[in-house]
Amino acid sequence: MAIILGIDPGSRVTGYGVIRQCGNKLEYLGSGAIRTEVEDLPTRLKRIYAGVSEIIMQFQPQMFAIEQVFMAKNADSALKLGQARGTAIVAAVNHDLPVFEYAARLVKQTVVGIGSADKKQVQHMVTKILQLSDTPQADAADALAIAITHAHSLRHAMNVAIAAQGEKSQEKTTALLRARYSRGRFRLKI
């Protein structure tokens, strides 16, 4: 059983989603957005750090998954996004969480089945996968999709390792992979 915090970084709105993975079952714990609502970047980064720290204290996740930076058309926007992302990562590391990074295309491929899916498709599939009664707002849905992607990648890595090692060493393999994942040694992208 693992609690996973997913983050969709942004300098004005940072989405978050928290799920619990129990074997093959995923359980929704919470989601929302950290809205900075100020103009100067240093204050926005301070609010992102405080918001992520508060979420970590509230939900006590064991793993932190975040979207990788993508190439943007506007260099200034890309820099601000990178700073917001770095701030969220620092909050996680300061709470001793292992950090996992996923490309947006991989997240969409995992959750929707199409790497070029749009936000509405991601929202729809997150709602279905987590059996939610309401559709989460776009930033929260993206963060939940990142957490779901990490849960699937963790489960897949365990299944592959167990199959490679055989049934006799299943417990040993599972313990080894959990130890490697707890140190954040995996970085997946497409």
Q: Can you walk through the features of this model?
A:
The protein is α/β, with parallel strands linked by helices and 190 residues long. It has a single domain (2-166), classed as Ribonuclease H-like superfamily/Ribonuclease H (Nucleotidyltransferase, domain 5, 2-Layer Sandwich), CATH 3.30.420. Helix content is 52%, strand content 19%. The chain has six helices and five strands. The chain has helices at residues 41-59, 75-94, 104-111, 119-129, 138-165, 170-182; strands spanning 2-8, 13-22, 25-35, 63-67, 99-102. A five-stranded mixed beta sheet has the order 3-2-1-4-5. Helix 1 (41-59) runs parallel beside helix 2, helix 3 packs across helix 5 and helix 4 crosses helix 5 (138-165). The protein is globular. Residues 185-190 have low confidence and may be disordered.
Explain the layout of strands and helices.
Elements (H helix, E strand, L loop, with lengths): L1 E7 L4 E10 L2 E11 L5 H19 L3 E5 L7 H20 L4 E4 L1 H8 L7 H11 L8 H28 L4 H13 L8
Parallel strand pairs: 1-4, 4-5
Antiparallel strand pairs: 1-2, 2-3
Helix pairs in contact: 1-2, 3-5, 4-5, 5-6
